[in-house]
Amino acid sequence: MKVKNYFTLLLFFIFFHSYSQTIDDIIRVSSYYNDGTARFNAMGGAFSALGGDLSAISVNPASSSIFTYNEFGITIGLDAITIENDFNGYLSESKSLEETLNQIGAVWVFTNGKAKFSFAYNLQNLYSYNDDFSFSANNSSSIDKYFLYYADGVPSDDLLIYSDETTQSVYQLLGENYGFGDQQAFLGYQGFIINSLDNSNNTYQTNATYNQVSQDITIKRIGNHYKHSLNIGGSYNNHVFFGANLNFHQIEFQERKIFNESGYSNNSNLQYVNFNEYYNSNGFGFSVQLGSIIKVRNFRIGLSYQSPTWIDFEEENEQALETEISTDNQIKTYDIDPRTVNIYDKYRLRLPSKSTIGFSHIFAQRGLISLDYEITKYNNAMFPDNEDNYLNELNYIIDNELYATAQSIRLGGEYRIKNNSLRAGIFNYKGPENLNGNKINGFSIGYGINLGGQKFDISYVSQSSYFTNKLYPKGLTTPYITDKFVNKIIASYHF
Questions:
Q1: Among candidates 96, 93, 102, 94, which has minimal Cα distance to 130?
Q2: Which domain holds residue 401?
Q3: Structural domain count, the chain
């Protein structure tokens, strides 16, 4: 028995009018944890009422007008990642180490009497998708349910390979004319995972016999959600600060998934399945952000609003299937590799808007404490192409499953001893309240030293997140729970 975990290098590309996204994609691309400067991270990201930090510009555009002098900064990080999965009561653990570019930016300050103006650019890593893990367990549901789901109603004649056709040509033809679902039916049919019922042209049955099967899944993801902010800010009389951002969002996401299944009954025709998938998504979009900070003696109040984010996505995927079939006491291997890259229609997604309010108190020159509260309205996420039935179905799911808001709380403080600063913070990010999962929380500590024209900062962040997942969005929907623990070391240099 061999495990196939690569795709043939000689590939053909096809373009067709179909989509592959699910409701999970909306949660993924709209989730974020601001991975900014070391000072920003050390204080839990609670900067909407403070400003004066390059990463704070990403939270409240008025932050740039707090700066007194021009500043340039860059931040890098090292993430130690531990992922624990609970799949049908079987626990697994995977570990990895990732280097990150957290932030890079600059601000330019201009003064004119009591008025002050600022211009800034900041690149912020909103979310890192880097995951590398595997898990396994016994399951009473098999991959046959995935292929049966997509095959239901598909004419069996469409799934045959005639003498003048190849695996590749039929797979491409189905994709170009009928879409993703018919391609899945074709793979399952040609791999003998499913078979058409006698005297039926569009009803199917499984070729597998089992009480339980053994499943092993390996998933590797890479990618980031970057936010480029072009900022303008101003203040008057050092009491009222305001700013605006034009944000450009850049999303890169890749996933390779290897699914292995075995352990069928001895009398089962199907004895082994290896299902390989590769998915690539790239998005580019924009949002607008407005913010203000009001200073009253030692107190500051910050308000900011980020509009819905409009992102255009391009997606592609590749698939390959290998099965082992028992016939007449012999095992025969079927290799169904279309050697094809499916390129889907470009589509637009509107991500939710965000509103933030913050409070901070400055203790003269000795320190400060700051609190942020943020709301994300998931119900204003949508696919605006209302002429497409599939996207309209997803919009219906958004209205009925993502109707709640998501809330985030960040709390941080700083204590100064001459030119040294000690910092700490806590944070909690939640997904939609009506969904069980998509939670991030943790704590942070940090240290900084100000050498006049230069500043060095370092922080440590301990972060945990909780997500609920499914093996596949349709058919084989067995859930598994992922706990992700990240220990971050973050370093910044500013001058």
A1: 96
A2: 12-142+208-494
A3: 1
151 Rama class: left (phi>0) / alpha (psi -120 to 50) / beta: alpha
DSSP annotation string for 277-298: EEEEEEEEEEEEEEEEEEEETT
Q: Give the pairing type, strands 340-344 and 12-16.
A: parallel
In a domain, 342, yes or no: yes
| Cα–Cα distance measured from residue 132 to residue 318, given in angstroms and rounded to the nearest whole number | 19
Residue 186 near residue 218, CB atoms below 8 Å: no
Give which of 487, 478, 481, 477 is closest to 468, Cα–Cα.
481
Question: Is it the case that residue 433 has pLDDT exceeding 70?
Answer: no
* pLDDT confidence of residue 201: 83
What integer best gives the mean pLDDT of the chain? 90
> Average of pLDDT values for 6-25?
57
| pLDDT band at residue 378 using 50, 70 and 90 as cut-offs | confident
**Residue 175 carries which side chain, given as an amino acid letter?**
G
User: Tokens 């203040």 belong to which residue?
Assistant: 235
pLDDT tens-digit series, residues 75-132: 999 999 999 999 999 999 999 999 999 999 999 999 988 899 999 999 999 989 999 9
Given the structure tokens 């079939």, which residue do they identify?
325
Tokens 């998504």 belong to which residue? 281
Residue 28: which of 299, 286, 311 has the closest Cα?
311
Question: Collapsing DSSP states into helix, strand and coil, what is residue 385?
Answer: coil
Kindly state the percentage of the chain with pLDDT values over 90.
76
93 occurs within a structural domain: yes
Residue 303's DSSP bridge partners are 292, 357
Residue 277 to residue 43: CA distance in whole angstroms: 40
**pTM attached to this predicted model:** 0.89
DSSP state of 352: P
Q: Taking a C-beta distance cutoff of 8 angstroms, is the pair 36, 459 a contact?
A: no
* Band of residue 21 on the pLDDT scale cut at 50, 70, 90: low
- Confirm if 282 and 317 have CB atoms less than 8 A apart: no
Give CA–CA dist 348/391, Å, rounded: 10
Could you tell me the CATH number of the domain that includes residue 347? 2.40.160.60
Place of tokens 């049919």: 189
